[in-house]
Design a protein that fits this description.
Elements lengths: L8 E4 L2 E4 L4 E4 L11 H13 L13 H5 L24 E7 L6 E6 L5 E5 L9 E3 L16 E2 L5 E2 L7 H4 L10 E4 L2 E4 L5 E3 L11 H13 L13 H5 L23 E7 L6 E6 L4 E6 L12
Antiparallel strand pairs: 1-2, 2-3, 3-7, 4-5, 5-6, 8-9, 10-11, 11-12, 13-14, 14-15
Length: about 300
């Protein structure tokens, strides 16, 4: 029997449904034409809802995980999946509706040229790409960011109601409760199905990328903790650990990991320059790159 792979994106005139995430995006990725501050972006999305853009009134500024769900780390300029149907993609930064909890006068944005996830002052000017959850897709097919608190452009606490922020919608699938189940030297994530080493500093010091790979291979040779299929996590797997309601580290409350470090290697090579690999910064949850030959990042094995 031949299995037919269904296309990821479904086009419906002016909108595109991502069947992988359950999200509907405007086909025009630069619908509002020019960059805006964070508060202007939130206000602009409210205005397009009042106008009933494409017959919908529930558009929103995407939260960080929604925007990140579009990224392909195999492509650059833009870092969208091969064959995507979007038009007018700007190969620069796009705002998310998620605030940086440690520095609440800053919000998260994603770079569409290369998939970098970083934070910037809310008075900065970046692009806006509205999203909504498509009909018949429930709460979507992505996990919540964890953010429940809202802040204004100056970083002051505010009521989430009517804000249009991540903390108001809390969109996505809720994580399992309990999420993390300790099992000896391992921790099982009930949400993603991944098993992590409980000690998040297994090498005791930062490594270069090859040394991290060599250590994982050695773990598998000796059947460490009863398993022989450990690996360096992909950048999406690392990012799945992040909870945007917390910082230092930006991990879910009550996690049972020990000796969590500030930055970790992923197994994902950067397509901008293959001498670099993607890395996760756990203080706030930023996603950037590191030079493979330098021993500057830590290893957190997964299976």
């Amino acid at each position: 029997m031949v299995m037919v792979k269904m296309p990821r994106f479904s086009e419906k005139k002016d909108v595109v449904i991502d069947e992988q995430s359950g999200l509907m995006w405007t086909k025009n990725a630069n619908l509002l034409d020019f960059p805006m501050t964070w508060e202007e972006a939130l206000a602009a999305v409210k205005e397009i809802n009042r106008s009933g853009l494409y017959r919908y009134q529930d558009w929103k500024l995407p939260n960080r995980r929604e925007l990140f769900s579009l990224m392909s780390h195999e492509m650059i300029n833009p870092s969208l999946p091969r064959g995507h149907p979007f038009a007018n993609v700007f190969n620069g930064y796009y705002w998310s509706a998620s605030t940086c909890m440690r520095l609440p006068d800053q919000a998260w944005y994603v770079h569409l040229g290369g998939a970098r996830v970083f934070k910037g002052m809310k008075y900065g000017s970046y692009m806006v790409w509205p999203v909504r959850i498509a009909e018949n897709h429930g709460t979507g097919r992505f996990f919540q960011t964890g953010q429940k608190t809202c802040f204004d452009g100056g970083g002051h606490f505010m009521d989430c109601h009517g804000s249009g922020q991540d903390g108001e919608f809390q969109a996505g699938i809720p994580h399992h409760t309990p999420r993390f189940i300790p099992d000896g030297d391992c921790v099982h994530d009930n949400s993603t199905g991944l098993t992590w080493v409980k000690n998040a500093n297994i090498a005791k010091n930062p490594l270069d990328w090859k040394s991290a790979s060599d250590l994982v291979s050695h773990m598998n040779m000796e059947n460490r903790y009863g398993y022989n299929d450990w690996r360096i996590p992909g950048i999406g797997e690392l990012e799945s650990l992040i909870d945007l309601e917390h910082h230092t580290p930006a991990l879910p409350a009550g996690h049972c990991f020990t000796d969590v470090q500030n930055f970790y290697w992923s197994a994902t090579t950067s397509m901008y320059d293959t001498a670099y690999a993607w890395v996760l910064y756990t203080v706030d949850g930023a996603v950037g790159v590191g030079y493979k030959e330098l021993p500057e990042f830590y290893l957190w094995p997964v299976r």
